[in-house]
Design goal:
The complex is a heterodimer of chains A (395) and B (243).
Chain A (H helix, E strand, L loop, with lengths): L4 E10 L2 E6 L4 E6 L5 H16 L4 H6 L7 H4 L13 E9 L2 E10 L8 E9 L2 E7 L22 H11 L3 E2 L3 H5 L18 H6 L2 E4 L2 E4 L2 E2 H7 L3 E7 L16 E6 L8 E2 L5 H14 L6 E4 L8 H17 L3 E5 L3 H5 L8 E8 L5 E8 L1 H5 L4 H6 L11
Parallel strand pairs in A: 3-16, 3-17, 8-15, 15-16
Antiparallel strand pairs in A: 1-2, 1-4, 4-5, 5-6, 6-7, 9-10, 10-11, 12-13, 13-14, 17-18
Helix pairs in contact in A: 1-4, 8-9
Chain B lengths: L3 E5 L3 H15 L4 E4 L13 H11 L3 H7 E2 L4 E5 L3 H5 L24 H4 L16 H15 L8 E4 L5 H9 L11 H4 L6 E2 L2 E2 L7 H13 L1 H7 L1 H14 L1
Parallel strand pairs in B: 1-2, 1-4, 4-5
Antiparallel strand pairs in B: 6-7
Classes of the chains: A alpha+beta (395), B alpha/beta (243).
């Protein structure tokens, strides 16, 4: 059976995204100058996910890692817009086997309480309306609740599957202290929190033995250890005095490392390990764990990673994401991340975000010809030299 | 229809001026890519006229690069100020009148004699007059010869004389032969704290100031092209390629 595939996302009147749409692949990397709208794209997808599968309010947005703004700032506030639109428009198209689906909604931002209201909502299949409602509908409906998961008309297998695919979307922003286990994750979702909380617990589900080989998810443990070159071993265990100072706050389970340059007795935890190792394990667990969302985002993918490590992790991460049929949106400022992308694979897509003359964000997919790839021009260099866009204009 | 235009310029204020001017000439809001050479390990040749010249030398194959990335780059505009022809020996290295034992052996920008200030070239160069047309022609020739590309119809080289600042001054004031005035930034614009009510911060060319200048320049572009041959030439070349 063919997997569902998201084919287009459209956003209007949300923050700096006045009118954009893009056609994602499985792994979608956004590059752009600071303040060019990359994170707003991730957030807009968060609002879309909440709108389609639940409701949009402070609670649902927080669970997805969307920054809470004042009501006025959720909508585009460009001085060039003479007549402001009342609603934020969000739409997602996907296909499954022969069928093409679309969910679209117009939402009004909160006024009296924290709930966004559904001004209109519709679902189509191959252009035919399957479900729809608007403020003009005569039927009594709760305008603070999305009806995608409630409507009888959308109880078919394909709709349910699409709802599940989109529902758990979250924007992951791993944070070193949370990964080390010294502070709790403010947004703990199962199995890994948006800031990296409970990483050890999630990792414990990924260890197993296969024909005498120790595995970590779909990877040989040996291959994972090549990424963390100082480590001889890592495992998940309980905190104990011999590896963690009792004065350090800790989670119930911890990641225990052995350093290949130290004696076997000198084990230590994530608290004392290099942060890069924790970020690598976080990314791999996020990509491989069966219970992590099918669709998610990572803001600043390259954080804390050496450029060469970032390149290698990007290569591995993108392969796993495709294997697992996940859809990932991520941002980066590290040119070497681009060198880890195989742009000949249509599932891997690179986008630039730039602001136009009026400040509106424009999203463009970057594609590079076989001829140029044959010349061994690294994408990192093309980006730094300005040929791809997505750089500050005047620096 | 809006185009994708790469700009290789000496600095950010030149980029800003060119962007505004090209939008004015084409009547479109085009998309611009600020193209920059990489500096070497000592931080040299990353910007300024040396950076521009180095970019022309080292960005190869330019035609493949322009066509191989989607969105495709329609045109590249390369800017080097005319003061370079007036002041810098390296750009006369291959001129007829130059006599140097090292002539032609190395790309002039990387010549060790020039770096060691032992370059025997005399300025002004005897191979050209100091007429604006000759200065522009020589500047264009130097860059054209460096760009390794069989068909240069989508490359526009502009040599503002004495610099893009002359175009700004032409938009505000009525100096005679403005293109012949040396360093209009220091000699006119930054002479006082204000230039036509626009605050000028000492010797620093600030982006905010140039945003105001660029707007005025565009509003008075016809006046500028009447006064500046280099501006007129850019307009003609842009029009030829785009319209």
């Amino acid at each position: 059976m063919e997997d569902m595939k998201i084919t287009e996302i459209s956003i209007q009147n949300f923050k700096s995204l006045y009118n954009v749409s893009f056609e994602p692949g499985k792994l979608n990397v956004f590059i752009g100058a600071n303040g060019s709208g990359k994170s707003s794209v991730l957030e807009a997808v968060g609002v879309l996910s909440a709108a389609m599968t639940d409701r949009v309010n402070t609670n649902s947005l927080q669970r997805k890692g969307v920054r809470l703004s004042t009501s006025a700032l959720y909508k585009s506030k460009f001085s060039s817009i003479l007549k402001e639109s009342k609603t934020v428009y969000l739409a997602i198209k996907w296909c499954k086997e022969e069928n093409a689906y679309e969910y679209a909604t117009h939402l009004t931002v909160p006024t009296d309480d924290d709930s966004w209201k559904y001004f209109a909502e519709s679902v189509t299949c191959n252009g035919e309306k399957i479900y729809g409602r608007s403020n003009a509908s005569s039927a009594q409906m709760n305008n603070k609740v999305g009806y995608y998961t409630i409507s009888e008309a959308l109880s078919g297998r394909d709709y349910v599957e699409a709802g599940k695919y989109v529902a758990d979307y979250g924007i992951y922003q791993p944070d070193t202290l949370t990964l080390r286990g010294t502070v709790p994750d403010p947004i703990q979702v199962n199995p890994i929190g948006l800031n990296g909380g409970r990483l050890a617990e999630a990792m414990s589900d990924l260890f197993y033995e296969n024909d005498g080989d120790l595995m970590f998810g779909s990877m040989f443990m040996e291959d994972v250890l090549e990424l963390i070159d100082w480590a001889a071993e890592f495992k998940v265990s309980k905190p104990k005095k011999s590896i963690l100072n009792p004065g350090v706050p800790s989670t119930q389970q911890i990641i225990e490392f052995r350093d290949k340059y130290l004696k076997d007795t000198a084990a230590f935890t994530g608290y004392d390990a290099s942060e890069g190792a924790l970020y690598v394990l976080f990314m791999l667990a996020l990509a491989m764990h069966k219970k992590t969302p099918k669709m998610f985002a990572i803001d600043s993918f390259d954080h804390a990673l050496n450029p060469r490590l970032a390149k290698k992790v990007t290569e591995l991460f993108s392969n796993i994401v495709i294997q697992q049929n996940k859809t990932v949106f991520m941002t980066t400022h590290n040119p070497l991340v681009l060198d880890g992308l195989d742009l000949t694979n249509d599932d891997i897509r690179l986008f630039t975000t730039d602001r136009n003359k009026d400040g509106h964000v424009e999203i463009r997919r970057v594609q590079v010809s076989e001829e140029l790839l044959g010349l061994k021009q690294p994408l990192s260099r093309l980006w730094i030299n300005g040929l791809l866009g997505g750089v500050p204009e005047l620096l | 229809m809006s185009k994708v235009i790469g700009i290789v310029s000496e600095g950010p204020t030149d980029y800003l001026v060119l962007k505004s001017v090209i939008d004015k000439i084409t009547g479109e809001e085009n998309r611009y890519l600020p193209l920059q050479p990489e500096a070497d390990m000592m931080g040299r040749y990353g910007n300024g006229w040396k950076g521009v010249w180095k970019w022309c030398k080292e960005t190869v194959p330019l035609d493949v690069i322009m066509d191989s990335i989607q969105p495709r780059i329609d045109v590249i505009v390369i800017q080097m100020d005319g003061d370079v022809i007036r002041k810098e020996k390296e750009v006369h290295c291959l001129c007829e009148s130059t006599t140097c034992a090292e002539k032609g052996k190395e790309f002039p920008l990387y010549c060790e004699q020039a770096a060691a200030r032992m370059c025997p070239i005399e300025i002004p160069c005897n191979s050209h007059s100091d007429e604006i047309e000759d200065i522009i022609n020589h500047g264009k020739h130097v860059l054209d010869e460096t760009i390794n590309m069989p068909d240069k119809s989508r490359i526009i080289v502009t040599i503002p004389c004495d610099s893009t600042d002359a175009w700004i001054v032409a938009a505000y004031d009525d100096f005679e032969n403005i293109e012949k005035i040396e360093d209009p930034w220091r000699s006119i614009i930054a002479k006082g704290k204000y230039y036509h009510d626009v605050r000028v911060r000492g010797d620093k060319k600030s982006i905010n100031t140039y945003n105001v200048f660029a707007e005025h320049l565009v509003d008075n572009w016809d006046l500028v092209t009447d006064k500046c041959y280099s501006a007129k030439l850019l307009e003609q070349e842009i029009t030829k390629v785009f319209i």
